[in-house]
Amino acid sequence: MSELFDAVDALVASRSPLPPPAERRRLRQAHALTLDEVAAALDVRRATVGAWESGRTEPRPPEREAYARLLKQLAKLYPAPESTGAPQEDTGTAAPQTITTAAPAAQARPTGGAAKATAPAEAEQSPAAPPAPVRQPAPAAVSLPRAERAPQSSRRPTARKAAPANTPAPGGAYAHGPLLVLDADTERQVTGYGVGGLILDVPAKSLPALVEWTLTEARLGSEKLHGSGKDGDPLLVLTEAACERYGLPAALSEAERLAGRLPEGHKVIKQLERADWQLTRRGLGPWARIYRPAHGSRRQCVQLCIPSWRALDDRSWGHAAQLPPPELARVLGVYAARVMTPVGSTAVTGLQLMTALSPPTRASEPDADGRRHREHRPGSLGTQPVDPAPCEAIDGHPVLAHLPRFHVRGPGERLFEEAYDWARDLTDAECMQGHLVGLDVNLAFGAAANGAVVGLSSPPEHVTDPVFDPAVPGSWLVDLSHVDLSRVKVGKQWRDLDGGLLPSPFTPSGQRPAGPAWYATPTVAYAVELGYDVAPVEAWVRRESGRFLDGWYKRLRDAYVATMADLGVAEKLSPHQFLQAMDGYKSRDPELGIVVDAVKMTVKGGIGKLQEKARGGGWKPGQAWPALARPTWRPDIRATVISRARVNMHRKMLALAAVTGRYPVAVLSDCAVYAADGPSPLDVLPYGADGKTVPGSFRLGVSPGMVKHEGTQSVLWGADVLEQLGADGHVANLARYIKTGEVTAKDTGK
User: Most buried among 321, 436, 561, 642, by the most CB within 10 A?
Assistant: First the structure.
């Protein structure tokens, strides 16, 4: 009989009545509970509770009964407005009220709704034995539901919880963290979701008022990353509902999308102008800065991010734009804490991070009057842009305006330091093996940036018949066609190799150079490392140099490693443990998986932004474009990093070939493909019982510069792709398709 009773109880629990979604949220907020606290109590994810409150899903047993019990108890403490008697007139003030405490939580006298306060002395009381009724004044900082809060009062967080281990815990001057994700309900009330489960009521009724509130009351922002730098501006992320609440379209029209902004005459832009707020040159677009000129050292600037306007590119942010506000706040909050508060695309943020970590100026020593002044900070790129050497300039740059319009520069006129895109046909021996295994270098460009000596704020110096110095950054015109990969130094020892199975380290295509060409310092230095003499004809060198990118690399490296550790992929794992940990690692926490991808794109995009090309209509070759006005428009620094990344890749491939006789069949940027008898990277890399592999070659691990498994396909698959896509002597790059095996387009080598 007891089994029948249990079945009946379970049936009743499966249909436990629940209040409407909006009421569920009201009750939770009334008791100052965060989504995290409710989720922890019910043993579900925070996103699950958020879905219950939004009405997207309904709870199922056994959580449904517990959730219904929670809401029922909260409803007794905070009855809905219509059940508390006739509402009284709202005086527009938040004066202390008289509260009768005859229950575990104090219940305020209604003023159009149920006011709430928590009396510390009563928190320990049991509902079964309430104390005698006591009348006492409410605390001065009473937290009221939305309907009762005074319009002119500062709205404090409805609820706040200590951040989880992988979420930043705000404090200090910016107690509410770096950002808020704003959402509006059907009653046009706006809620801000911050880091660590923070929830703020947002009283602003217009965009100008929102900016004002953000800077005066919201306590948002972030501390500067360098003593001579600037604090991070607060970021507001607007959902579609929040856009509509503040008079903005939920999506841009096709014309607005192509322009990248709203038209100048839009009503919201006029509102901002009337309130003396200004927009930067990029206007009111997916990423917008709204500011007033700074007074002294105090900045007045708010950053907007509008995901529905495609601010969060899915190539960098995956499905972040589709996340509910609390989850999106978590993703952006973790990124902000570990990298920096986003200020645009991941590429833009990566570039801004360089300046934030190495500001161009600093405060001088006091002068005779005791005043400090702004002065150049050594080790930075300074405040003024520097023209590149002619060989470093991309086509259309003003320094090349004297060239004929359709002139095509070859390697003897232009520096071509780009990532690898090289492939070859399989040998007969490789065709007899069963698998093709891809190895991918973690944060390859980040690892290459670490320790890179680059030019700083001084212009390049032209030298003829120079003596090559590997310690001097610059561009060198030199003939490296004599370097023979069949006999090179590997680890300072001469080794005989099959040079025809290796890409040249000196060209992106992997083809052996045919004569003099321009190279960055690391490429020429590698020729010397391989055991060959070099005799440059001329050079553009930079005498003022330093390791400008070291701090940038370290911060991004730490962000990547810490987030991977949160996903269960720690450092110092054995090869087998690492491969096991990497299996499905993003599925353990998809939100942190988004952060990992964003960090990787920040590295790659930041380096790419050092050579941003002209965009938009109206530009003509020979004319300057906006990016050239930045001190961080530095194609020479980009060339140095890419040169080091390509050389690092070649050095690893060379070391592996010298010891094992294995040669890559394809290389695409930071991915190399090898033929093997088995499907695992361990079938390519000869790890010993001590957990060590070939010194100087590929090593499995999570740290930047180490490698992970990119994918495995069959040799038959590879042969089929080569046959399908090969034409006119072109060999398809199998590294482009090794991850999934899906061939999506014809391989043109670009």
Answer: 436
Question: What is the Cα–Cα distance from 120 to 104, expressed in whole angstroms?
Answer: 10
> Could you write out the three-class secondary structure of 32-63?
CCCHHHHHHHHCCCHHHHHHHHHCCCCCCCCH
Which DSSP letter does residue 377 get? P
Q: SS in 3 state form for 329-362?
A: HHHHHHHHHHCCCCCCCHHHHHHHHHHHHCCCEE
In the block, tokens 């900016």 appear at: 211
β pairing state of 287-295 and 298-305: antiparallel
CB 568 within 8 A of CB 588: yes
CA–CA distance, 559 with 448 (Å, rounded to integer): 17
CA 641, CA 453: separation in Å to the nearest integer?
Answer: 9
Record the pTM: 0.78
| Cα 4 from Cα 10, distance rounded (Å) | 10
Span 270-300, pLDDT tens digits: 999 999 999 998 899 999 999 998 776 677 9
Res 88: pLDDT: 37
User: Which residue type occupies 705?
Assistant: G
The answer to whether residues 738 and 711 touch, using CB atoms and an 8 Å cutoff, is yes
122: exposed, middle or buried (C-beta count within 10 Å: 0-12, 13-18, 19+)? middle
For residues 639 and 475, is the Cβ–Cβ distance under 8 A? yes
Number of H helices and E strands in the chain, helices first, is 20, 27
471: phi then psi, degrees, rounded to nearest 5: -90, -5
Token pair listed for 447:
């690892």
Taking each helix axis from N to C end, the angle separating 346-357 and 590-609, rounded to the nearest 10 degrees, works out to: 70
Report angle CA 365, 369, 375 to the nearest 5 degrees: 35
Handedness of CA 255, 259, 261, 267 (dihedral sign): negative
CB 13, CB 62: distance < 8 Å: yes
Tell me if residue 480 falls in helix, strand or coil: coil
User: What tens digit of pLDDT does each residue of 427-437 get?
Assistant: 999 999 999 99
Amino acid at site 623:
Q
d(CA 169, CA 341): 14
Parallel, antiparallel, or unpaired for β 454-455 and 487-490? unpaired
Instruction: Note the pLDDT tens digit of each residue in 691-723.
Output: 889 999 999 999 999 999 999 999 999 999 998
